[in-house]
Amino acid sequence: SIVTLVGANGAGKSTTLRTIAGQVKAQAGSITYNGEELLGKPSDEIVKRGITLVPEGRRVFPDMTVLENMKIGAYLRHDKLDDDIEWCYELFPRLKERHWQLAGTLSGGEQQMLAVARALMSRPKLMMMDEPSLGLAPLIVRDIFQIIREINKQGVTILLIEQNANMALKVADSAYVMETGCITLSGAGKDLLNNEAVKKAYLGT
Fold first, then answer.
1. Tens digit of each residue's pLDDT (9 = 90 or more) over 43-53
2. Which sign, positive or negative, has the C-alpha torsion 175, 9, 70, 136?
3. Could you give the residue ranges of the DSSP H alpha helices within 30-81?
């Protein structure tokens, strides 16, 4: 499924994703995935279990090529990467055209595509995405959301944080509203899209 977290800046959305990914240490509570406690496990162990994070701001390695960035996403794998590289190139033809190019010279939209492709190279079961449309032109945003749907169709669960709440709720199977670290509302994406309180607070209507 596709699940989205909606909330104002500072609500705790990014912290939630980074804590699941093992980048932030939780002060209390638990994180359970497929019946297994993840709290306290290092990031590489979490990636091994099929969880990956596409961070806010893309965070590509600017002095490495597109292909080198993608291969870094597979650093825990010991099998052939060719099929997965080709699949990423099918999703993102522009990356194939620029496979030799340094990542730092790509446009913002291309860097976002590369960040997603790099995450896919670990063959995730759960992909967490933090603000994938941030700072991108509307046409590129549309492309990114089409790719999110396509990745989901391939059997990857998506946990999405997105400033564009309207598009996030349209694509989401289920959604949660977070305020100061607490879930205050939840339901199907389409239901929250039509919720008057959500419309007023996050959709500008």
1. 999 999 999 99
2. positive
3. 43-48, 66-72
> Could you give the residue ranges of the DSSP H alpha helices within 75-188?
82-91, 93-97, 108-120, 138-153, 165-171
What confidence tens digit (pLDDT) does each residue in 89-115 have? 999 999 999 999 999 999 988 999 999
Query: How many angstroms separate the first and last alpha carbons of the chain?
Result: 27
User: Is residue 95 within 8 Å of 103, Cβ to Cβ?
Assistant: no
Q: CA 95 to CA 76: how far, in whole Å?
A: 22
Q: 7 Cβ partners below 8 Å, 6+ apart?
A: 13, 177, 178, 179, 202
Query: Using only C-alpha atoms, what is the Rg of the chain?
Result: 17
CA nearest to 175, candidates 162, 154, 192, 196: 192
Residue 139, Cβ density class (10 Å: 0-12 exposed, 13-18 middle, ≥19 buried): exposed
